[in-house]
Every structure is written in C-alpha cells, then in structure tokens.
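Re-running Universal stress protein to confirm reproducibility after the cluster update. Everything else is unchanged from the original entry.
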Amino acid sequence: MYRKILITTDGSAVSQHTACAGVKFAHQMGAEVLALFVAPEYQYPVYVEIIPPSYPSEDEYIAQMRRTGEDYMGRIMRSCADAGLKHSCMTAFSDATALKIVDIAEQEGCDLIFMGSHGRSGWGQILLGSVTNKVLSHTTKPVLVHRLIHEPAAT
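Result of re-run:
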C-alpha cells in the first residue's frame, strides 16, 4: 500500500518512540523509510556589532546540527537495518518545520508521513502538537499520527 514513508523526529523521547512505531509500521507494509530531522535556521546575533568569538559560525552550526540529526536518526536507521528495510536519513534546515516536512515528503516521493501527536513543543495530551497540526493542514498526502498513551521515560 505504501512504498516510501517519511518518519519525522525532533530528538525528544516521545518522537523516538514514535519513530520506532513508524519503523514497525513500515516493516508491516514492506516500505522504504526516510527519516527526517528539521533543524532551525542559523541565527545571526541581533544588535551586536561584532560577533563574539564563542558564537559559532554558520558552517560550524550547520555541521553541529547535521551531527545532532544523525544522532537523533541513528536509532531509526539501526531499527530499519535490523528489520531489513531500505532506509535513508536527511537533516533539513527551516524555521517553518511543518512546511519543510511537507516539502520534503513531496520532493522525495513519500506516500505517507508518519509523525507523533506531540514532540518537543507538546502541551501534554491536551492539544494536538502545533507542527503536526500544521502538517495536517498543509499536505494532501496521508499523515499517520501516532499518539503515545504514556509519556516515555527520558533515555
């Protein structure tokens, strides 16, 4: 039914558990997995005439965010490899996370977006997460929203 599934993560414990559920779902479907981490754009210091020496350069920031993304997606990649699934990962940069998720799903030919009901910015179990809600509002692709009943312990 689905050939390529986009699984998003923000590195939080909730999104890591959601990603594992996404890999299990992809295994059931026999689908390829594309793991995605969207990092915020580099921000130049505001109202500073001279950039402090301790402030990372844009290249340093991009390299660090790519390493962070690889770390976040490492568990997903290992789970895919263990399940024998074709898989890849991508770190993208945007301050509009939901729109970037929708764009990547379109560009990469994904049939389904698999994401959690809440991530780093969730308000508990009261409201649907803002990024998830925006993805649902901006895509024509199917979105499977995974909801955890209990908050996982941080690992």
